[in-house]
Amino acid sequence: MSARIRLTIGALCLTGVASLLAQGPPGPPGPPRSPRESAPADFTGYWVSVIAEDWRWRMVTPLKGDSSSIPVTPESRKVLEAWDPAKDEAAGLQCKGYGAAGLMRLPGRVHITWQDDTTLKLETDTGTQTRLLHFGGTPPATEKPSWQGYSVANWERPPATPGAPPTLPIFATRIGTRGRALEVTTTHLRPAYLRKNGVPYGDKVSLTEYFDYHKEPNGDEWFTVTTIVRDPQYLIGPFITSSDFKKEPDASKWRPTPCAAR
Amino acid sequence: MPRNGAPLRARLARSVAAGVQTCLALTAVLAYAEPASAQVDFSGQWAPVYHEDNPERIPGPELADYTGLPINDAARLQADSWDADRISVVSSYQCRPHSSDYGMRGLGNLRVWAELDDKQQLVAFHTYMPAWGSERTIWMDGRAHPADYAEHTFQGFSTGVWEGNMLTITTTHLKTNYYRRNGVPSSDRRTVVEHWTRHAEFLTVVTVVTDPVFLTEPLVRSQNWFNDVGQALPAFTCEYAPEVPGAQEVPNHLPGTNPYLTEFADWYGLELAATRGGAETMYPEYQLKMGAPHAKPPDRCKRYCTCGGGFNCDVNPPRPPAR
Questions:
Q1: Per-window interface: A 83-102 vs B, CB < 8 A
Q2: ipTM of model over 0.95
Q3: Which of A30, A32, A242, B88 is most enclosed, with most CB atoms within 10 A?
Q4: Any CB–CB contact under 8 A between B38 and chain A?
Q5: A217: exposed, middle or buried (C-beta count within 10 Å: 0-12, 13-18, 19+)?
Q6: Mean pLDDT of all residues in chain B?
């Protein structure tokens, strides 16, 4: 009987410790905190994209046929050659260059606010677009494709090997328990452009983004968003970029503009 | 049915005590194993992702392309004097390594490994990039940077601290080098801050360069790698060889004499002033001020149009068939 008791207490102990380690540092007692309350970093405010990378593909509409840096398929090249901004304008598709998979690479400002305790709202002045980042849940079954799609957000969990079985943390422990990144997965996107010169993405595209906050020695606050676009139709592999945004003190430079096809 | 309550209670108490003891011992082991602060292990083989500025990073930048760089007139003057023959003629340029900050942007295959002490605590990360066999140490043990007058090297002196899951590295004591391989200089007074984050199989490194000599504001860029467990990196060798025997001068263009400064603007249909760089040109509102292209823009891309994920970067790609 005593052996059974020791075994039971030992097992309970292991379970308890494992559970504690899996959860990371203990939070304050009380009801679960909302995503807004548990935010490990503050992404709200006005931010400007500073164009120190890909300048000639971002600050001006690139020349027709230019797909440099993007791992496109031969099919994509054919579509690219057929790009005609006048046709897009005539069809009311001026916003094809402003879909979620290309939006964060465009020069402009973003304004991030909490719409409610579980939804971050990200607006851009360029193209006057709005993205809603929903914490928890999945896209509704009735969700229709749109330029900005449906985004599911979470505060990034500690690193772990995907699909790994649970292990007993006897001689090792989980590290990386204080992540500060915002992870966003976006689907239900309407076919649009990765670049304004018509580099296409299709309706099977998915988008994963990681937002990381960093503060510099001179006091400047930044976030960098790493963007991973997967499109089995027009990309031979994931298309990965990272874009840097500097915080601005106020809305004085916020200048909403409509979409432009050229 | 227990016949004697007192011995049973005693046995129960002993068992509970033993269980608690086991638990305490286990907790002690775990406490010893746990690192001093939360970390991410960046060790491993990382393959570079060239999905930004591919033509600049793989075949190399166009002459007089200073776009996206917050440079001042001094940097511009030095870059305008650049003549790429310098690499062939001046032996000290032949095997000149990339500095650690350029290496992280120029990008290359990367191996990272951790150095641990006898208590399994992290002392340093080491990095190796094959280009010029560049190896760097990032000290994680809290040591201070050396005095200003200490030796400057191409890799500099780096220390790191954790900010949650982000590794923030500060590098000083760098030698002069370049922000772009077309002669845009970086000074030996610059400081480089890096932020490393690992998301799933991807590594993102933000580099923030402050240079009181050549930049008017920090240069902030970010680069990406993916974890490639099958990657094996070679050693690097570079031999100095006189390619132009008897050459006595450093190839250069004196101020106002470089005939190639407008090529880049003309090939890509850009305003000339924008190609000269500067902080103002890096903000969205510059789009409103931007003037006309220096020459009539080509009707389509004719140069480096299809640089993909690797080295398939033709200078003059096949034209589309005539209709």
A1: none
A2: no
A3: A242
A4: yes
A5: exposed
A6: 88
